[in-house]
Amino acid sequence: MILYVSGRTDIVAFYTEWFMNRYKEGFVDVRNPFNRKLISRIFFSDVDLILFCTKNPKPIVRYLKEIDKPIIFHVTLTPYKLDIEPNVLDKADVIDSIKEVSKILGKANVVVRYDPILINSQYDLSYHVKAFDKLCSLLNGYVSKVIVSFVDNYKNVRDNMNVLSIKDLSLDDYKTIGVEFSKSASKHGMSVQTCFEEHNLCEYGFVNGECLSLEDAYVMTGKKFKKWNARGCGCACMVDIGEYNSCKHFCKYCYANFDEKRVASNVSMHDSNSSLLIGHVNNDDVIKVRKN
Fold first, then answer.
1. Residue 47 CB coordination number (10 Å)
2. Running DSSP on this structure, what letter comes out for residue 62?
């Protein structure tokens, strides 16, 4: 089993203490987002690989050597300011933390996500080209792969359109991103790719790949995994242990916070000693052990 920590919230940034408590106790419980009374129980002895995904690696850096599992570490690093990412750690500190993670895990196991690209009057195409080149320069020698994505029309994006003021990308814009980003990545010893995007930019030098390919998962674990059919992207199948509407970053483009009013309520129910990220197991909950 591949554990995804997490696409539904930023566990590393805000709930590292909880995660390490679960790891030390040996299991974690996850509510089914579509059937709230159904809980999957996952034993870490059944976990073959952990993929961490965060905007702030700093809280977990000191614990990484305690985790006796193969680890892939994805860090989302974008050039936006507080108008769009109001609670994200200062980017210089994020970069320092990426370097620390790379020293521990090796640069082949650290991926930066320039995710998502959105264009408006403040963050125009030239801004992104310069920001991406600077990012590659600062992380030269610490990161081997960058994954790029483009903003999607999520509910939270529509709700925050007065702030985002997104402009549509033209074919020439995609070409500029493809050519310039490829040039910057190559110059600093990195590959750059998309995953499951309409425009994969391979004709401009991007690599055709996935966030976590079946081949990479096999190399790290010696096991074969199925494709993640729920995503349709070609990535190896993963199990997400997060909870929607519980991330305190409040990024204006986020898909995982689609009801921001619920975030404060969910956060108030977090207990670092609970087996669940949010709340506790109830007497009428149905718990099923998940093996894969």
1. 19
2. G
String of DSSP letters for 244-284 = SS--TT--TT-SS-S-HHHHHHHHHT--TTSSSSSS---TT
The type of residue at 94 is V
Residues whose CB falls within 8 Å of the CB of residue 35, separated by 6 or more in sequence, listed in order:
none
SS3 30: strand
10-residue mean pLDDT series, the chain (292 residues) = 98 98 98 95 98 98 98 98 97 98 98 97 98 98 97 93 96 98 98 94 95 96 91 89 97 92 95 98 97 86
Q: In the block, which residue shows the tokens 């930066």?
A: 112
For 103, residues 6+ apart whose C-beta sits below 8 A from its C-beta are 142
Please, what sign has the CA dihedral across residues 161, 91, 14, 20? positive
Count each helix (H run) and each strand (E run) in the chain, helices first: 8, 11
Q: Following CA atoms 287, 226, 197, 71 in sequence, which dihedral angle do they give, to the nearest 10 degrees? A: 70
Strand order through the sheet with 207-208: 207-208, 191-194, 145-150, 110-117, 71-76, 49-54, 2-5, 239-240
State the Cα torsion 202-206-212-216 to the nearest 10°: 100
DSSP secondary-structure letter at 88?
P
Question: Would you state the structure tokens that stand for residue 219, as one six-digit string?
Answer: 């190399």
Greatest alpha-carbon pair distance for the chain in Å reads: 58
Radius of gyration of the chain (CA): 19
- Antiparallel, parallel or unpaired: β 35-43 and 49-54: unpaired
The closest of 274, 273, 256, 229 to 53, measured between CA atoms, is: 256
- CA 200/CA 102 separation, integer angstroms: 27
Q: How many Å separate Cα 268 from the centre of its chain?
A: 23
**Size of the chain, expressed as the number of residues it contains:** 292
